[in-house]
Write a structure and sequence with these properties.
By secondary structure, this protein is mostly beta strands. It has helices at 46-54, 62-70; strands at residues 2-4, 14-16, 19-24, 27-32, 99-102, 108-111, 126-132, 141-142, 154-157, 165-173, 184-189. The strands form three sheets. It has a four-stranded antiparallel β-sheet with strand order 1-4-3-2, with no helix packed on it. Strands 8-7-10-11 form a four-stranded antiparallel β-sheet, with no helix packed on it. It is elongated, with a radius of gyration of 21 Å. The two termini are 37 Å apart. The relative contact order is 0.14.
């Protein structure tokens, strides 16, 4: 994206070739138009289209749902209030006593009360842990190596290679993968 400083373009807006001209307030900008997708049902596109289709809620896409839940977490510049971000749903319950601590090995350890009957939870609900490191504030990493179920009552993980601070978002997913709990947020410092 480029900012247009010359006033020779007047009040031009719209598309010319592969460039889009637009205004925000009194400032004029030009950016390259996004490439056209020749086959939106290609094998390369399939994982992305099914991902966003699977999280549709009413007429809102997963992207719009994320924005509506998290718009207040983003501020001026690159400021992100990590505690306000939300990634989970609201169909499953979070377990009681959900905690996160660092152990002697320098890993983080999650613990929760297991075996307590809950109306909207099952022992085989799968734990999902996602992390954000502040040196890459817009990159959410789903930690694939966490293999814990609700009935286990604990899980352990390692720090990513870089960073002195880590933001963890922990939630449970039903065995079918269709329903999710709200997430539980933890901030850790090395």
């Amino acid at each position: 994206m480029a900012r247009v400083i010359s006033s020779g373009l007047g009040h031009i807006s719209g598309r010319i070739g592969d460039h889009i001209f637009y205004a925000v307030g009194d400032k004029r900008y030009v950016r390259r138009a996004p490439p056209k997708v020749s086959n939106p049902r290609s094998p390369a596109q399939f994982p992305y289209t099914t991902l966003f289709r699977s999280v549709r809620l009413g007429k809102r896409s997963g992207y719009h749902l994320f924005l509506s839940r998290n718009i207040n977490a983003f501020g001026e510049g690159d400021r992100v209030d990590y505690a306000k971000l939300s990634f989970g749903g609201a169909c499953l319950q979070l377990p009681d006593g959900f905690t996160c601590v660092q152990n002697e090995a320098g890993h983080w350890e999650l613990a929760w009360q297991a075996g307590i009957p809950m109306a909207t939870a099952a022992p085989d609900d799968r734990l999902i842990v996602a992390a954000i490191c502040p040196d890459e504030p817009y990159r959410l990493i789903v930690l694939e190596n966490i293999c814990a179920l609700r009935k286990d009552g604990r899980a352990e993980g390692e720090w990513p290679a870089s960073g002195k601070e880590l933001h963890l978002y922990c939630l449970f997913c039903s065995a079918s993968g269709e329903t999710f709990s709200p997430d539980c947020y933890f901030r850790l410092n090395r």
